Amino acid sequence: MLEVAFHQIDKFNRLNGEILHKQTQLDKRKVIERAKGLLMQAENISEDEAYRKIRNESMQTQQEMVHIAQQIINNLQVNS
Length: 80
Known about the structure:
The protein is mainly α and about 80 residues long. The chain is about 90% helix and about 0% strand.
Protein backbone atom coordinates (compact mmCIF):
# COMPACT_ATOMS: atom_id res chain seq x y z
CA MET A 1 0.00 0.00 0.00
CA LEU A 2 2.78 2.43 0.90
CA GLU A 3 4.64 1.51 -2.29
CA VAL A 4 1.60 2.48 -4.37
CA ALA A 5 1.37 5.82 -2.58
CA PHE A 6 5.05 6.57 -3.24
CA HIS A 7 4.58 5.60 -6.87
CA GLN A 8 1.63 7.99 -7.18
CA ILE A 9 3.61 10.82 -5.54
CA ASP A 10 6.51 10.19 -7.91
CA LYS A 11 4.16 10.18 -10.90
CA PHE A 12 2.53 13.42 -9.71
CA ASN A 13 5.93 15.10 -9.28
CA ARG A 14 7.05 14.05 -12.77
CA LEU A 15 3.85 15.33 -14.35
CA ASN A 16 4.06 18.57 -12.41
CA GLY A 17 7.64 19.03 -13.61
CA GLU A 18 6.53 18.45 -17.20
CA ILE A 19 3.78 21.03 -16.83
CA LEU A 20 6.21 23.60 -15.43
CA HIS A 21 8.64 22.89 -18.28
CA LYS A 22 5.91 23.33 -20.91
CA GLN A 23 4.73 26.57 -19.26
CA THR A 24 8.29 27.92 -19.33
CA GLN A 25 8.61 27.01 -23.01
CA LEU A 26 5.30 28.74 -23.75
CA ASP A 27 6.36 31.87 -21.86
CA LYS A 28 9.62 32.02 -23.84
CA ARG A 29 7.73 31.56 -27.12
CA LYS A 30 5.40 34.44 -26.22
CA VAL A 31 8.38 36.76 -25.65
CA ILE A 32 9.93 35.74 -28.98
CA GLU A 33 6.63 36.21 -30.81
CA ARG A 34 6.20 39.68 -29.28
CA ALA A 35 9.72 40.67 -30.33
CA LYS A 36 9.10 39.38 -33.85
CA GLY A 37 5.94 41.46 -34.08
CA LEU A 38 7.70 44.60 -32.90
CA LEU A 39 10.59 44.03 -35.32
CA MET A 40 8.20 43.43 -38.19
CA GLN A 41 6.43 46.69 -37.44
CA ALA A 42 9.53 48.78 -36.70
CA GLU A 43 11.60 47.59 -39.65
CA ASN A 44 8.80 46.70 -42.09
CA ILE A 45 10.10 43.14 -42.51
CA SER A 46 8.50 39.71 -42.79
CA GLU A 47 7.98 37.30 -39.91
CA ASP A 48 10.72 35.05 -41.28
CA GLU A 49 13.17 37.95 -41.47
CA ALA A 50 12.35 39.00 -37.91
CA TYR A 51 12.89 35.44 -36.70
CA ARG A 52 16.22 35.21 -38.55
CA LYS A 53 17.38 38.49 -36.98
CA ILE A 54 16.64 37.19 -33.50
CA ARG A 55 18.19 33.79 -34.24
CA ASN A 56 21.32 35.25 -35.80
CA GLU A 57 21.88 37.66 -32.92
CA SER A 58 21.35 34.77 -30.52
CA MET A 59 24.01 32.70 -32.27
CA GLN A 60 26.48 35.59 -32.57
CA THR A 61 26.20 36.55 -28.91
CA GLN A 62 25.72 32.98 -27.64
CA GLN A 63 22.62 34.03 -25.72
CA GLU A 64 19.25 32.32 -25.69
CA MET A 65 16.76 33.66 -28.20
CA VAL A 66 14.42 34.65 -25.41
CA HIS A 67 17.08 36.98 -23.95
CA ILE A 68 17.64 38.63 -27.33
CA ALA A 69 13.89 38.91 -27.81
CA GLN A 70 13.49 40.58 -24.41
CA GLN A 71 16.23 43.08 -25.27
CA ILE A 72 14.46 43.89 -28.54
CA ILE A 73 11.17 44.41 -26.71
CA ASN A 74 12.82 46.66 -24.14
CA ASN A 75 14.63 48.72 -26.79
CA LEU A 76 11.67 49.12 -29.13
CA GLN A 77 9.22 49.97 -26.37
CA VAL A 78 11.56 52.66 -25.01
CA ASN A 79 11.96 54.14 -28.49
CA SER A 80 8.21 54.13 -29.22
